[in-house]
Amino acid sequence: MSDAMAPILDIQDLSMVFGGLRAIDHVSMHIKNGEICALIGPNGAGKTTIFNCITGVYMPTEGSVSIQHAEKPREQIQGLKPNIINQKGLARTFQNIRLFGKMTVLENVMIGRHNSLKAGIFKAIIRDKATREEEQRLIDESHEILKKMKLEMFINETARNLPYGAQRRLEIARALATDPFLLLLDEPVAGMNPHETKELEETINLIRDREKVSILLIEHDMSLVMNVSERIYVLDYGRMIAEGTPMEIKSNPEVIKAYLGE
Amino acid sequence: MTHKKLASELIDALGKSIWFVVLLFPFMVMKATVVSGVAVIRFRWENLPGIAIASFVLSFVWSRALEWNEHRGDTADTDTPMRRVQDVVVSALAHKPIRWTAVSVLLLAMAIYPLALGMYHTNIMITALIYVILALGLNIVVGLGGLLNLGYAAFFAVGAYTYGLLWKYAGPVFAAASINTGWLFWIALPLAGILAVIFGILLSLPVLRLRGDYLAIITLAFGEIVRMVLQNSGPVTGGATGISLIPRPWFFGIRLPPRQAATYIYYIVVVLVIMTIFVVRRIEDSRVGRALEAMREDEIACEAMGIDLVRNKLSTFALGAFWAGIAGVVLASQTTYINPDSFTLWESIMVLMAIVIGGTGSIPGAIGGALLLKLLPEYFRPLAQYRILIYGVAMIIVIIFKPDGLFPRKRKVYTFVDKTASGATTEVGK
Chain-centre distance of CA B209, in angstroms? Predict the structure, then answer.
């Protein structure tokens, strides 16, 4: 955090081509430490594709994605595998909820903390003192995370039996469990009622303020976007058409055209 | 239920029964016989009412059962007799003394089983327990890892042939050096495990990117390839005739007569089963086991949580294969004869069926399923020709009425005592 101005995530000239379709067309964007950024745009604009390029689900056709955090040198992450990128400190949630449905809520979060432990197969079988302590620590830490996300009453519940809003929060909890410095939220309030949205808005602010995790979110709910984000990127047909503060975006003619047509 | 509904269901059943009568008419009523060189069709009309009534009753019962199944989740089933029995048993087992008594009674029963029941029953039980090991192993791959493996018998074969070939080629060397060949079993046991693991990893490398149907087909092909290779490398493996006269494990240098040898193998396999259960339980409830389950639930999310899928898949196949290898050695020593026909696709499917009927991903399920599938046919010999039919019906009934299997897995329940008083303590119940 020596250089507050250096972006923790820097995307340069990113393109993603599927066959003849250019889903993302030379997009550049960056996120600074401690920021809450939003990425908006009409359906099919390529928002989730950008997420997938950042998190390694897709290998971008062109361009670079680099991260820099906590005094470490800047490194390129495009084309790395999703699990490696996650270990470098980028965690995400999914637009269509992807929980481990048959596992309990606590176990879902424990999976998130997978890489904070070492125990392999042999340790698991022998279950020596160190492994037992490690397991206990894992349970306690996961419990703490669930408390923060107000999910502690569901601990032993099977994840797929949770109410919809709680499932969304559990996805965030699970992502937080991987100790990220940047959290990518893909439509975190989709399908939530206004009350739940308000709650999640507070949660997002809390995550940034208390956990010191920067956030990039994709969202269609404009009230949430305008309330929480400090900067907004607007994507349309794979191209970045605007960038700015909520106030600037609201009055940007390009954005209005993209959303409402001419 | 209203009269109207009942009437419509009865009419429905009547329709089905007519349909069945038409369908079965050529098989059950018409019979072609040759009388002095001329084909004559005899009509056995006396069979007709039987078919009609049986199909009418069965289809009515079936539709009632489906109806009951749909609505059984509507009311909480706290007061059914089954539930009450279950509650009593569960709460009794929660007490340590009772639990330990139950476990020791079970162990004692297993210990005196071969002494009390003789060689025939002992051999049946050995076969069943070999299947328990197989089912527990496959349960890691299919139940925890969610990777459908239809070539599991190949690892079984690898284990059996490890012992067979070891005997065939190292046996004479041992005999020449006047070392007891009974030791070969104990050498083969870990060696087979290791070889099966190697084969498991070899298989998993090409299928790393596959899932579901594609994975099932590739593993099926792998199983057949291994069998074909064994069958067609005559000079090395004995080809279709296999390897015979494989020694039973010897008891500290004493060559046991068949009956005692069976008892001895029985005890060995019981110990192996206990070992398997112990290890599989520990794996299931560990960081590794949870990662496997996460992979089964959602590969993309699993990878996004920082879990290395490649490593996960390798360890899934390796862990599963290990137990099949061990079971193979025991099979070879029990039957003293192996050939490729013991390791067909049918074996893989049997083990898979045991898991599905017992409960995918559940250890009691794998044990119960394997025992049911192996023991029942032995004790209902008269029904042997309907075996496949009964399996099929059993599968359909289990999948519709108990989709989680007969003995579904109970997930670990974590209880937290508020840490303000005593520091974070967790009580772990199963």
Answer: 26
Return d(Cα A90, Cα A215) in angstroms, integer.
Answer: 10
Report whether pLDDT(B302) > 60. Answer: yes
CATH number where A203 lies: 3.40.50.300
Identity of the residue numbered A150: K
Residues B286 and B376 in one domain: yes
Cβ-nearest to B315 among A110, A112, A121 = A121
A-to-B residue pairs, Cβ atoms closer than 8 angstroms = 117
Structural domain includes residue B68? no
H-run or E-run covering A16: strand A7-18
3-class secondary structure, A59: coil
Q: How far is A156 from chain B (nearest CA, A)?
A: 6
Average pLDDT over residues B193-199: 96
Same domain, B56 and B203: no
E strand residue ranges, A19-168:
21-32, 36-40, 62-67, 75-76, 90-92
* The last residue of a domain, from among A157, A179, A201: A179
Q: Residue A71: which domain range? A: 1-89+181-262
Tokens 């920082």 locate to B306
Encoded tokens for B294:
């996460």
Work out the pLDDT band at A4, boundaries 50, 70, 90.
Answer: low
pTM of the model: 0.88
Last residue of one domain, picked from the residues A179, A196, A216: A179
Which of 25-84 (A) contact B at CB < 8 A? 55, 57, 81-83
Range of the domain at B319: 118-401
Q: Say if residue A245's pLDDT is above 90.
A: yes
Tell me what ipTM this predicted complex has: 0.90
Q: For B74-105, what is each residue's pLDDT tens digit?
A: 655 556 677 778 778 888 888 888 889 988 99
Total of domains in chain A: 2
Interface check for B291 against chain A (CB to CB < 8 A): the answer is yes
pLDDT one-digit tens code per residue, A102-142: 999 999 999 999 888 877 888 888 888 888 888 899 999 99
> Using the beta-carbon criterion (under 8 Å), do A94 and B287 form an inter-chain contact?
no
